[in-house]
Amino acid sequence: MGKQRAKELLAKLKANQQDELENAAAIFTVAQVAVNELREAEQDAEPQTQPLSLPPSPTLNKAELQQRFGDYNHCRKAAKAAGIRFSRTPSWKQLVAAFNQAEVLQKVVDQYRETCKMPSLPGVSIQINL
User: What is the pTM of this model?
Assistant: First the structure.
């Protein structure tokens, strides 16, 4: 092999190496752009939730329940309609506490549903045992 031929082959080799470096840089650039777009899409997909703040405790009392619902039996029926269940016959004190808790929990649920909208939830009911 002559000197001229060796120089030509070395020049081709250097040109090939340069082309490979340029191709690798282009591939790296495309891959980096794709990774950045995936990260942005992932951040957009995650709901930006804020911590829920607890609403102030309601201050319902027996007189207010009687004013809203009437006598004890009507209050029990209202509790049942609101999804409040008791393991045995409740006292007025337990009814008051249950309605107070139900109001706070409903406000928390409403706040959560407003913050984290989930379109598949309408029509779903969840029972929580305390």
Answer: 0.55
